[in-house]
Amino acid sequence: MIDLIYRSARWAAWIGGVVLVALMLMVVASVTGRALIGIGLGPVPGDFELVEVGVGIAIFFFMPWCYLRGGHATVDLLYMHTPKWAQNAIDLVSDLLMLGVWLIMTWMLFQGMLEKKEYTETTFILQMPVWWAYALCLVGAVMGCLAYLAKTLTRLGLASEPAGWSIETNAGH
What is the pTM of this model? Predict the structure, then answer.
């Protein structure tokens, strides 16, 4: 199960990358269209709405893999001078706290999605239902919860990391 979570987080990050590349191409097309407005072209309608939604989705899809790879920023000034047992304790406490934050954030995102759907809120230009963006971000948020849970279980010794994986070789400290 842990292996599936790690693989899913990796695939989510790839999907987030594809979303960012698509956004980049759309922005280039939109800016080019604005520059060539004199010959009948124009900007992509709703380009800023698509960027807002796409960047949110990409971030939620990147975060689980970033965490599993140890890519989050750390303050090493004191951390690197503490004994190994203290570093492990700090890592476990921070993982538990972040798991709690992700669970609350995911719950609130779910509640927000239900509210946006209930009130049929749409974007201004494209008239795209706002709850669609919430639903896609929710996928990444659930993946983040699973990533924090998986990592916490491995730190507690209740599960093992996938073969060929170790915190020390992938950590950002």
Answer: 0.85
